């Protein structure tokens, strides 16, 4: 990754870089906090589609300050990680991710927190490997069977050679999908998004428009929470339906809605999100 604005260099310098096998390459991990966090389970943060570990740039410090060990991969097919063997969607990512967690954590459980595509991945992983997750927290996740993502139209940018034109498209796409408030599309958000989308090698994902997460939650054995931005464009006018869909999960504990926040809720309203997550992780 090219040099990005603060706090990315500081966080990278403070992290332990780790790698686990994935297909013909590896999964790139970052780890912060104590390697032995005592009785607290490590917190594993899974980023969204077309993203990287930097989707959590505004949330890592709070978790480390609370004494938690924090593990954040670039999911297979994104960032600096190799594509998963066998396919290009969350059901292909989850097995490679579990292989990496087994290498890094052994049999130790973790608190799985997944954003968007990462939330779907976390749900599939927790369903397939019930021994892995102590808690599951899904953040802005699709595949609950009630979103209306078909009306969201993103603009293409790969054909554009002019950097300013590309930046304008990235700003548009952030406004359409990711962030609710115009002022949230700051220089850091644009820099992160611009750096992440060019490394997305998983562009034909299909499961987000299905009920894959809703179905997986029927099999999850650990407690499940959800945190969403109240203005998440994936669920405009459908938050009641989303709450009903989650409530059908046998281990579901509750849905927290963060006011004045869109899809990338943990970036747009970081302090409110961190407080909500801290409350869940104390439960």
UniProtKB/TrEMBL annotation:
Query: What Pfam families does the record tag this protein with?
Result: Abhydrolase_1 (PF00561)
Residue span, AB hydrolase-1 domain: 42-158
Keywords on this record? Hydrolase
Query: Sorted alphabetically, which InterPro entries does this protein's record hold?
Result: AB_hydrolase_1, AB_hydrolase_fold, AB_hydrolase_sf, Epox_hydrolase-like
Sorted alphabetically, which Gene3D superfamilies does this protein's record hold? alpha/beta hydrolase
- Superkingdom of source: Bacteria
Q: Does the keyword Transmembrane apply?
A: no
Q: Do the record's keywords include Hydrolase?
A: yes
Q: Name one GO molecular function term.
A: hydrolase activity
Q: What name does UniProt use for this protein?
A: 4,5:9,10-diseco-3-hydroxy-5,9, 17-trioxoandrosta-1(10),2-diene-4-oate hydrolase
Question: Which species does the entry assign this protein to?
Answer: Pseudorhodoferax aquiterrae
Q: What is the lineage of its organism?
A: Bacteria, Pseudomonadati, Pseudomonadota, Betaproteobacteria, Burkholderiales
Q: Which gene encodes it?
A: hsaD
């Amino acid at each position: 990754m090219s040099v990005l604005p603060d706090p990315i260099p500081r966080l990278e310098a403070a992290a332990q870089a780790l790698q686990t096998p994935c297909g013909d390459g590896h999964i790139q991990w970052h780890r912060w906090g104590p390697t032995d966090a005592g009785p607290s389970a490590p917190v594993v943060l899974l980023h969204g589609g077309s993203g990287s570990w930097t989707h959590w740039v505004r949330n890592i410090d709070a978790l480390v300050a609370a004494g938690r060990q924090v593990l954040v991969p670039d999911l297979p097919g994104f960032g600096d990680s190799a594509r998963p063997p066998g396919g290009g969607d969350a059901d292909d990512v989850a097995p490679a991710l579990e292989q990496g967690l087994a290498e890094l954590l052994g049999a130790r459980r973790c608190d799985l927190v997944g954003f968007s595509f990462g939330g779907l991945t976390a749900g599939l992983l927790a369903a397939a490997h019930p021994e892995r997750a102590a808690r599951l927290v899904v953040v802005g996740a699709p595949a609950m069977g009630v979103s209306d993502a078909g009306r969201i139209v993103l603009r293409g940018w790969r054909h554009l050679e002019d950097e300013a034109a590309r930046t304008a498209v990235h700003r548009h796409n952030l406004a359409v999908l990711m962030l609710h408030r115009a002022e949230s599309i700051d220089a850091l958000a644009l820099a992160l998004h611009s750096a992440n989308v060019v490394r997305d090698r998983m562009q034909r994902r299909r499961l987000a428009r299905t009920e894959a997460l809703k179905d997986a939650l029927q099999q999850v054995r650990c407690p499940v929470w959800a945190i969403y931005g109240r203005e998440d464009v994936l669920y405009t006018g459908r938050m009641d339906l989303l709450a009903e869909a989650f409530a059908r999960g046998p281990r579901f504990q509750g849905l927290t809605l963060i006011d004045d926040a869109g899809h990338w809720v943990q970036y747009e309203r970081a302090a409110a999100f961190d407080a909500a997550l801290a409350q869940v992780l104390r439960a």
